[in-house]
Every structure is written in structure tokens, then in C-alpha cells.
Amino acid sequence: MKQEYTVTVYTENQVGLLNRIAIIFSRRKINIESLNTSPSEIEGIHRFTIVINEIEDVVRKLVRQIEKQVDVLKAYFNTNDQIVWQELALYKVPTDEIAEKVKVERLLREHGARAVVIRKDYTIFETSGHREETDKLISVLEPFGLIEFVRSARVAIIKESAGFHLKLREFEQAEPSEEAVENEYLDQGKDVFVM
Amino acid sequence: MAGGLRSKIIVMETIELKPATETKKEPTTTISGSEAVLNAMIAEGVQTIFGYPGGAIMPIYDALYDYSTRLNHILVRHEQGGIHAAQGFARSSGKTGVVFATSGPGATNLVTGLADAMIDSTPLVCITGQVFAHLLGTDAFQETDVINITTPVTKWNYQVTDATEIPTVLAKAFYIAKTGRPGPVLIDITKNAQIQQFEYNGYTPCTHIRSYRPKPVVRKKYIEEAAKLINEAERPFVIFGQGVILGKAEKEFKAFIEKAGIPSAWTILGLSALPSDHPLNTGMLGMHGNYGPNVLTNECDVLIAVGMRFDDRVTGRLDKYAKQAKVIHLDIDPSEIDKNVKTTVPVWGDCKETLPMLTALLEQKMYPQWLQRFKDCTQKEEEEVIREELNPSGDILTMGEVINTLNEITKGDAIIVTDVGQHQMVACRYAKFNKSKSNVTSGGLGTMGFALPAAIGAKFGAPERDVIAIIGDGGFQMTIQELGTIMQSNVNVKIIILNNRFLGMVRQWQQLFNERRYSFVDIQSPDFVAVAKGYRIEGKMVSERKDLKGALQEMLTHPGAYLLEIMVGKENNVFPMVPQGCGVSEIRLK
Ligand SMILES: Cc1ncc(C[n+]2csc(CCOP(=O)(O)OP(=O)(O)O)c2C)c(N)n1
Questions:
Q1: Which of A153, B241, B357, B461 could make a disulfide contact with B89, Cβ separation 3.0–4.6 Å?
Q2: CB pairs under 8 A between A and B
């Protein structure tokens, strides 16, 4: 069954790597729903967060192809219940409309939003949350002449993860231990060994 | 200036011609990026470079002028020829092939070879020149975005814009190309970096990259599980690919199958890893492979895949492939495990390591009845296909009898380089091999035009051996210009054109599946022998059986390159055949 998966990739900071990772999806005609690159908990190591809608078998294969890239340290994939995630959204609305017709305060409170800029001509609100939450505020603001809307890619934290510090230390050694070079497949032997 | 040059030479002389040596660290000298590139080549033990100059790589070529006693540069006639030659070199020598090309068209001409090397796991380091860094992105003369064009077809690529990066980047390039599952690496060097003088501290080979783990840790648990499955098997079957050759594990592989007594079959890239006459060698897998290995894939109880990737040309329809069998997959590349065929026990690792570990746990066994099944199949194929192909009743020569006659003369000692098409399948089916690294062909990409340049490279990779290229009349015309390279560099390769006056393989499909609608497969050829003579290469054409053996002998004893055009049946087909969309056991004998 297709569902949302979040792929987390720890990489070296290398020009061209974004393309190398992106074409793993496009080559198989798989749409990337959202893609974020950012620093990670470790200086110099980048973290990609990629959201796709696919079946698990396909995601597993994609993740292995990603991990195969020379500049990729490690890639994980998770379903939504295994992560905590947020997206950031910005909304620009005419200030007079808002000030006149809406109880701004209530609106902000109900949607966990805050005003980032208030000018005579327009106001920019910001909120973060899951897709449905940021979507809801669009529909609330639309009647008041929403001028612009933009939403960021998903950023996600894996609930079970202990971070990448220890793993990196292993990788820096010439002979990493079994745990460091674990492979999704090999670690789930009993689940996967079905014919 | 003269002093500078002298001290450079002193540094160079400390370099030995063995792979990946560290150069002397002191004294620090100032050299150009171009010289650093060439120093890296020497430190990595490179002796032969295939290349073609041009504006953006001129500084490297200028430096090469001074290195010509230590680096042998072969001027090819087209960059595609250059990269296929480097592939041939890598395949026959087991070393990394090196290519130089200029920016823009020079670099784009490499793309087919990169794709070919990528899919066939061939270690290459390609150096391309690039426009000055300040011109990047300006649509400058001969500027192409080579890094992005080649990303999908390289194991790794990198653009150098500063000369100080060159020693470490090239060290990484050689390390990545050769380790783990090998593959092509491309380094694009802007012209300013080639010219730039910098403080050179010698060359340190790369031995570790933290984000790259080429050598998986072997897990005992899976070795044990695999051994148990094999020991309990009643009809085990081994299928092997190029992994055995790339892992230099031919001996380990032989010991493994001999102890376990398991019949074995090869993919076309695995061909020659096991001698043709080995009693457990049951032949070729896949679309035009042998009858037994295909049919019995669907009857074995344990299928042991070694260094192969279950290509669709090997498996046919996946949902009809070895469904009854437990599958053990030995591969160095974890992304291959479960990619096409679900594995029961994955043995992730270098087969040079995993095979002996597995062998140690195996019981000495034989499966006479099971092996007899293969022999029975061979007998059937012999009667229905092979006999007529090798000893035709008609007057017209067949491709099979040419290969068979060639076997009689070479005794299986030659390197056979094939192009793509019917002649390739026939050569792989019938050529005999005693030694590994003797079969050079474009397997994964199926690149017509591969053979002629690859044969040139194969000869440089194994100069002491006979190299025979077997090419179709179509494919020969795709890289025919490399006759110029053969002429200029005196490359002693033997070229056999199997001329059926058709794009034979496509014609076969049109005959079998498109009701003989021969759409644009009727290809005309020049007088090949005259063309060869134009390049001062000896040659001959034969079309009669009585002349065949003599002509082959003459070709092989001729002191230099030789082209032998052999006229074969126009509408012969290659059988057996697993038609596309069918399972392997639906293989057709006619
Ligand atoms: C570059 C390239 N273009 C097209 C093809 C498709 N193709 C595969 S086999 C073949 C026919 C080859 O004809 P020829 O070289 O005469 O060899 P034959 O099959 O007759 O032995 C063609 C056109 C290919 N493999 N490679």
C-alpha cells in the first residue's frame, strides 16, 4: 500500500549531491513530495529530509540506492508514526481587511500562528505544523483576500534515533563494526526471510 | 625555471611503477595542476592512457609532452573509442582504465562509455578538461555541464576548480573506481586549475572515505545459514557473474563448487571465470543461453547466485523465475540484494572473502543424478541446435562454425572481444576459455561499436595474449575510425567481421515477432578489406568453408593487426531463445 514515507539522509557537504540524490527518484518516475536540506546535529554533515508516497518495497530499494552513493553516510526511512515532523507556512493578507473583520487575536491563538510583519498595507502570519493544520489556516484567511501563501518542506526528527554522533565516529575508522555498517535488510532478517 | 624543473624530476624519480605508492613528501615543490594530475597517474601505476586533446585540456597535454617516457598515451580517433579502449584495458588487466578528453564535445562523447562501464562495473578514471572557472555557466566556448550530464552514469564525479585539490581528489577517484563494486569516476578539471602553480606535497593514496564503505563486514550468521541450506539441498544450482572476476576470486569459486559438487552456469559477464571444460560448467544463462541452465533454474531447490545481479536478460519473466527455489545471493553491493529476486539468505560481502568462509562449512558432495539432468539437456540442445550450427549441412558458413574453428586454433587461450548482436551471442555460446578475464563484451548496455576500441584496450591490458575482436558488419561501422588508432599505435589485434549483411539481431526479432517486416535492418557495407588496407592493415575476405581454417590461421600468425571478413548466412538465427516476456523454462530451441 502506498503511504507517506520520510527518508532521512546524512551526507557529506558536497556540490552536486542534491542532484545525485534527486535523480534516484526521477529516474524511476517517482515524485518527491517535499525535500529539505539542512545542517544536522553534526557540523559539516548535511541532512536531507525527503517525503514520498510509495509502497515500502520501493522505498527500501530507493534508500539502498541512496546509501550506495559515495558521499552518503547513511539513509533511513520512516512512516509518519515513527517521526515528529513540522512544516512552516507563511501567509500574507491585507492589513485593513484583517484588522476590520477578524478577531485577529483569536485567529492567531486558534492556529498557533503569529504575526511576523505588520505593515499598513499587509500583514504576514506564520505558523507551523502538519499539512492539515497549515492548510486550515489558508481556508480561514482566504475570505479576507489571502495575497500570498508559501509552505516549507517537511523537517522531521526520528523518534527512535539517538543521533548520528556515535555512528559518525565509527565511520571515521577504517574498519567499522557490524553495527555501524548495518543494513536495513540484514538487521531485519526474521521479518524479511519469507519466501 | 630550470631549477624548478630539476627539483620536479627528483621528486618524480622517487616514484616506483607500482600501484598507489606514496611519493616523497619533501622537499615541497611548486608544480602545476597538470603535473599533479600526471604525478597521480604515475603514483597509481598507470602506464597507458587513452585520450584525445582539445582546448580545455591543453595544459595537461602540454605536461604530458614531458612525461611521454613514463606514460604511454594512445591517441584514439573518437573519445567514445577512447573510453571503450579503457574499458577493454580494465577488463583484460583487472586494473583501472584511464581516459583523457577535452570539455564540451570531448566530454559528451564519453557518455556512452560511462554508461557502459557503470552498468558493467568497470573501473575507470576519466579526466575531462573544463573551461576556466570564471567562465562556468556563461555558455563559454565548449562549455558543457559535464558533472550533471554524467552524474547518473558515474559511480562518483567531481569538478576541480583549484589545483591544490588535485592530489587528494585523484587519490579518491582511483580508490573509488577500484574498490567495492567498481565503476567509472569522472574528474572535470577547469583550465585555470590545470595551469595553476601550487605547493605540492607529494601524493598520498586514499585508503578510506568515511561516507563510503566498499568492504562490507561479513556476517557469520548468514554464512552459516547459507551453508546449511546448501548442505541440505538436493538439487543446488550455482549461477555466477562478473563479481567472481572483479573480486579476483576465480580460485575460491572453483574450490567452492568443487567441494559442494554443484553444477554452475554463467552470465555473459561471468564467462571465462570458470574454464569452459570444467565438468561442473553447465553453460550460459539467459535469453540465448544454454537449454539446461535455463530450464533447470526452475527445477533446482537452492539457487546460489554469486556476483551477479539477476538482469532481465538472465531471468526472463520474474514471476516465473525460480519460484520453487530458496535463493542465496552473494554480492558486494547491498542494493543488489532483493532488487530483482527475493533472497532467502543474503551473503553481503566480497566473494573473495565469503566464498572460502562458505566452502569451509560445506560437506564434500556430488549430485550425479542432478548433473545428469544437465547433460541430458545438453544432449537435446546438441541434437536440435548445436550440431547444425557447428557442422552445417549447407554450403553457407555459420557464425558458430567460425567460432568453433577458431577454438581449434586458439585452444581457448585467446582474449575474445565481442560487439553486440547475433555474433556476440554466438561467440559467447561457443568460444572456449581456459583463463579468466578473457571475455570482453558490452553486457549490460549492449553498446554496438564497443568491440573494436575495446580490443585495442584489451591488447594494452594483456600484451602477451592474442586478442581477437568478433564484430558484426553493423557494429563495426559504428567505431570503424579506430582502425586509425590501430594503425598509428601498431596494435596487434585480430579483427573478425561476421558479415551477414543485416543488422542481424534486430532482423531476427523482426522475423520471429514482427512477421518478417524487415524494417531498416538491411545494412550495406563498404569493402571492409579495402578500408583496412587504407589504414595499412592487412586483411582478407572469405566465404567458403575450405578457406576458413587457413584464413584464421593466417590471421593469427600475421605479425600485426589483421582484418578477416567472413561472409556468413544472411538469415541465420541464434537459438535457443527465451522470448521477451517468457519465463526461462519456456526457452525455445527453434
Ligand atoms: C549503439 C546501438 N544501437 C542500436 C543497438 C540495437 N541493436 C542491437 S543488436 C543490433 C544489430 C547488430 O547488427 P550487427 O552489428 O550487424 O551484428 P549481428 O547481429 O548481425 O551479428 C542492433 C541494431 C545497439 N545495441 N547499440
A1: B461
A2: 74
Helix (H) or strand (E) holding A89: strand A83-94
- Of B244, B297, B296, which Cα lies nearest the Cα of B272? B244
pLDDT at A41: 92
**Is residue B580 annotated as a catalytic residue, yes or no?**
no
Instruction: Residue window 152-191, chain A: list those with CB within 8 Å of chain B.
Output: 168, 171-172, 174, 176-178, 181, 183, 185-186, 189
pTM score, whole prediction:
0.94
Which of B159, B210, B221 is opposite residue A172, by nearest beta carbon?
B210
CA distance B129 to B37: 12
How far is the C-alpha of B468 from the C-alpha of B458, rounded, in Å?
Answer: 10
Q: How far is A156 from chain B (nearest CA, A)?
A: 22
E strand segments, B165-208: 184-190, 197-200
β partners of residue A89: A127, A151
Sheet holding A45-54, edge to edge: A34-39, A45-54, A3-12, A72-79
Name the stretches of chain B with pLDDT < 50. Answer: 1-17
The pairing of strands A83-94 and A155-158 is antiparallel
**Radius of gyration (C-alpha) of chain A in whole angstroms:** 21
Q: Identify the CATH homologous superfamily for domain B29-200.
A: Thiamin diphosphate (ThDP)-binding fold, Pyr/PP domains (3.40.50.970)
Q: Are B272 and B437 in contact (CB under 8 A)?
A: yes
Give the number of the atom of ligand 1 that is nearest the alpha carbon of residue B523. Answer: 16
The CATH H-level superfamily of B220-374 is TPP-binding domain (3.40.50.1220)
| ipTM field | 0.91
